[in-house]
Write a structure and sequence with these properties.
Length: 289
């Protein structure tokens, strides 16, 4: 199954739900539902061949080591670079070419500029491995505690300071919307550096924004799962993103990657049926976009 605009292969990000732990069963379900892509976790080096041999494309593979790449300990960073380099070579040989990461440091309490420097040091060393393997790094801008690359300022600085054409963006409009950043303007600026796309969206709930604001926790109400008091992540079609425009920009740029549903939705989470329906409904929406 592919998007109507751009003909991009569609699939989903494996989150290791109980039903996804049965690899053969997961692959069979994907093929039965005309899914073409699956994003894998840090065990990609062990399972990539089975996935590819079954006829599925690996949209992205989680990088093996994350936080140690942004450690104040130079020895720990060198060890992490070596481990990731070995992992990238093994995964690339098995068919995985895009590697996913969130830039989370070992010590989020340190000054952001200091941690940013550690990150540039280690990923600068790793760049040669990506380039030799014909592989790419796709950074997701999840704005979690200490996350170093999630805004235009920090994506721009990372790309400029690393200087490698093989390191760039995992485009996910949901995080940008949550932060108040225009996802279309962001995509227009960074589209040449986009190596993977998450099919995930975000809803801003105006009434809740009025009731609770956006700076304090509520006193008596509970936040959404995969969200806060006034926002929540959704599957495509249930949020604010104009996917027709997004896919058109990607098409015009020559993007040749995939779009993978990252299922983080309050209403599609509790049961296997709901989880599978969330993936399939998101894919169906994008297939018509």
């Amino acid at each position: 199954m592919k998007t109507a605009t751009g003909n991009f292969p569609l699939g989903w990000r494996r989150r290791n739900y109980a039903w996804e732990q049965d690899l053969d069963g997961m692959i069979a379900w994907a093929l039965e539902n005309d899914l073409e892509v699956v994003d894998l976790g840090p065990d990609t080096d062990q399972i990539a061949k089975s996935v590819v041999d079954a006829g599925l494309r690996i949209g992205s593979a989680d990088l093996s080591v994350w936080t140690e790449m942004i450690s104040p300990d130079a020895g720990a960073r060198r060890a992490a670079v070596a481990q990731n380099a070995e992992y990238i070579r093994a995964c690339a040989a098995a068919g995985a070419k895009v590697f996913f990461v969130v830039m989370l440091p070992v010590d989020a309490a340190r000054p952001r500029a200091e941690n940013f420097g550690y990150m540039v040091d280690s990923y600068g060393e790793l760049a040669a491995t990506f380039e030799k393997c014909g592989a790419y790094l796709a950074i997701e801008g999840w704005p979690g505690p200490g996350s170093l690359v999630c805004t235009p300022e920090t994506y721009r600085a990372f790309i400029e300071q690393i200087g490698s054409p093989n390191m760039g963006v995992n485009y996910d409009p949901s995080h940008l919307l949550r932060m108040g950043i225009d996802p279309i303007r962001f995509l227009k600026e960074f589209v040449g550096h986009v190596f993977h796309v998450h099919g995930k969206d975000c809803m801003i709930i105006d009434e809740s924004l009025y009731q609770y604001g956006n700076l304090q926790e509520a006193a008596f109400a509970a936040p959404f799962k995969y969200g806060g008091m006034n926002w929540r992540y959704t599957i495509p079609g249930h949020g604010l993103s104009d996917w027709k425009i997004i896919l058109s920009i990607l098409q015009d740029s020559g993007y040749d990657g995939c779009v993978s549903i990252e299922l983080e939705d309050h209403y599609y989470d509790d049961t296997e049926y709901e989880q599978k329906q969330g993936v399939l409904q998101g894919v169906k929406f994008l297939a018509g976009s």
